[in-house]
Amino acid sequence: MKPRRRVAVLVSGRGSNLGALIAAAAVADYPAEIALVLSNVPEAGGLVLARDHGIAAEVIDHRPFGRDRAAHEAAIDARLHEARIGFVCLAGYMRRLTPLLVDRWAGRMINIHPSLLPSFPGLDTHARALAAGVKIHGCTVHEVTAGVDEGPILGQAAIAVRPDDDAHSLAARVLEQEHRLYPAVLRRALEEGGERPQAEPLLSF
């Protein structure tokens, strides 16, 4: 069996998708080891989750860096290299990245977004989807590029929007699909040797 890739997860909040990745990596044949969790928020719940599972969890707070986003990302990049990380997953990391980090990790950094991109990039996706009257909603794993939620799509999962859905209920059902999709796409990305994985057909549940 091939050595498992050392993966870092960047979080800003509770770490729901981090939990799904940790659970997937607990299976013996999964190709990733969640080796490091970094957050820009000292109070992020994802840090507690990681530590509860014996994973190194650290804070690189963005606030001391002021408006110097590149300096903050240089500190993140240095820690990733120090920890011998080979691949990075963003899981609710609420900072727009600069070319410094994006370029250094091109092809080795992915993100999960709660909509069927290219529809509804950015924030408040569930409320916006309901306001638009869409009948199908879902989530997307994509490669991280300089544009917000603009990277190549690596996988998607879709659900039907119910007549009685509100933003809360829709978010909850999409999140269930995120927890299935993200580990599956990460597995495929790593098993393809770090090359850009081919996007799977739309997954519907």
UniProtKB/TrEMBL annotation:
Q: Does the keyword Metal-binding apply?
A: no
- Residue ranges occupied by any Formyl transferase N-terminal domain in the UniProt entry: 6-186
The active site of this protein is located at H113 (proton donor)
Site annotated as Raises pKa of active site His: where? D149
Q: Which SUPFAM superfamilies match?
A: Formyltransferase (SSF53328)
Keyword line: Purine biosynthesis, Transferase
Q: Which residues bind N(1)-(5-phospho-beta-D-ribosyl)glycinamide?
A: G15, S16, N17
Q: Does the keyword Lyase apply?
A: no
What does the record give as the function of this protein?
A: Catalyzes the transfer of a formyl group from 10-formyltetrahydrofolate to 5-phospho-ribosyl-glycinamide (GAR), producing 5-phospho-ribosyl-N-formylglycinamide (FGAR) and tetrahydrofolate.
Matching entries from PANTHER family are given as:
PHOSPHORIBOSYLGLYCINAMIDE FORMYLTRANSFERASE
Query: What's this protein's name?
Result: Phosphoribosylglycinamide formyltransferase
Query: Whose protein is this, by species?
Result: Endobacter medicaginis
Encoding gene (name) = purN
